[in-house]
Every structure is written in structure tokens, then in C-alpha cells.
Amino acid sequence: MPPGESSTLQQAFERAVATWEATLDSSVEIRVEATLENIGGSTLGYMGPYGTANWGTQPVDNVWFPHALADKINGGDLASGNYDITGKMTCRDDWNTDDASTDGDGYGGEYDFESVAVHELGHGLGFVGGASYDGATGNGGVRDDTNNFPWVYTCFTGSTNPGGRYLLNQNEFPEDSVPMGDVLTNKGGTSNGGAAGVYFYGDHAVNANGGAVKLYSPDAWEEGSSYSHLDSVTFNGTAEDLMTPSIGPGDITRSVGPVTQGMFNDFGWTDPFNSEACASPTPNAVTMQGMATTYTSAFLVIEKDNVLPLAIAGVLVIIFGAASIFLYRRK
Length: 331
Ligand SMILES: [Zn+2]
Fold this sequence. Notes:
alpha/beta
């Protein structure tokens, strides 16, 4: 990264923050911790939320809500002074930071920093599934290992098999099972009744899309990409390109499309939470008592080298909690 570029990167990051400020409302400051360092490989950035469950006014018990959304629903900060979202952006010589770039513009071989920042902040604000897949056994799961809670995202996901639509239906899709693993890896025909892939069924998103929204669920599980993104075949090059799992050089994807906006509405950002799958307590869920539970990740390691402090003043300041890592790979 050329000397002096960090300030332009920070400006691009702040424009990404402003995009979300214009998209989602909260009376509670959202604190974002984002650092700039050399991640290596083809990963451009990763970011995620801390999760909170059972804080007292939760719309549904035993479900992880991203801190920022829990604060909004609560109408006050549940963990004052703590970050809500955290993550990293990598150092590259070929970041585009040009403010004038617009969606669809080609910027040669450069990757658009602002596009990646908008994408990563989207994960931090709730676009996160936290699914797991064991290649040795074929078992899949959508709950954390300690508390057995899903993320709010999973209150709306399911297969095309009407009898077993929702992934939270533990009769059809037991946690850590082959039927769950199959639906997460696009297999049909046997254990899940012919369903292939996984879809998002929240009302707002379905209305915006004109049908169930296909999530990224390739045949081979991709850690950090599968399940927690929109399907790339369906949505690349569309208004919903932002939350597909990868970005190419020259691609500008800074806008939050109506389907993606609909998903955030479904999570509870703009309308009362309404999930058929989460309407009743899920079997096997752990009952938590007392204070709000905070789900944090051992993954959060902020190194001191090359750190660009991106403490954003204002409505959005950006923490991390998912067990999964959310990658935005270059193509
Ligand atoms: Zn991503």
C-alpha cells in the first residue's frame, strides 16, 4: 500500500458506513472496530457481529441477534462501551478508493475498497448464518456448539421441500445431521426429500424478490462463504450483487439492493420480527436465565501492526461474535 493511502481508505470506509446509515435506523450508536492489516491469500476482508440472546425484550428466545440489532430493539445499549461489530480489511496495493466510481464502473485490475467495506458491514449488521459442515461425516449444523442457538438469519432459511421447509425444523433437519449437511451443500433426492440448496423465506425479502431468495450453497462446502451469502449464479451482476460471496477487479457493488434490504427488514431492523420458523421455541433449545448472554468468538484477534483505527464517530461506529469467518474473496 503506497504511503499516505490509509487516509483515503478510511474515507472510503466512512462512505461505506454512511451507506448503512442511510439504510438502517437505530437510536443506539453502533460501534464498529475495523482494522487494516495484511490478511493474506485471496481474502479482502472479513467482519461479523457479536451476538446477544435473551436480554429481556427479545422477539424470540434462544436466538442470536447481532448486538446492533438487539440494541435497536431494546431501545438502549445492552453493552455500553463495547463494540457491536469487528473485523479486518486487508492491505493491498490495488485498492480502488475513488469516490466517483459508480456501480458497474470498471476500474481495471483494482478492487473497490468501499464495495468490500459495505459488504463486510452487512455481515456485521446481521447478514450472517453461522452454519457449519463436517466434510468427513457430511453433518451440517446451524447452531453454535455451546448454547445451541441459531442466528436470527436462520429463522428464515429453509429448503424447497414444503414438508421440511425450515432449517430450524429439527424433525426434518436435526442439528449436526446428514439431512442438514445435504441441504447446506445443494444435494437433493435422498435425505431431504428432493430439496436442493437453501433459500431465504422472510416475507419482505420474498416480496422484493418475487419468490424465495436463493442463498449461496455450492455442492462443495466453502467455509466462510456457503450459506451466509446470496447465490452468485442468481445474483451476480444484479442489484443484489453486494452480498454475493466474491468480487472481481473493477467491480463496484456499493448499493444495498431491495432484496437485501428486505432481508434486514425481516431480521427486525425496520418492522416487528415475524418468523414462522421461530414462532415457537425450538426443540432442544437451552433455556437461558438472568442477564443477556453475549456470544463472543475466540476468533477476534486484533494485531497491532498496520492498524488503521477506523473508529467511526456518529451513528455507526463498528464487533464480532460468529464462530464463522465471513470472507469476501477476489474472483
Ligand atoms: Zn461475505
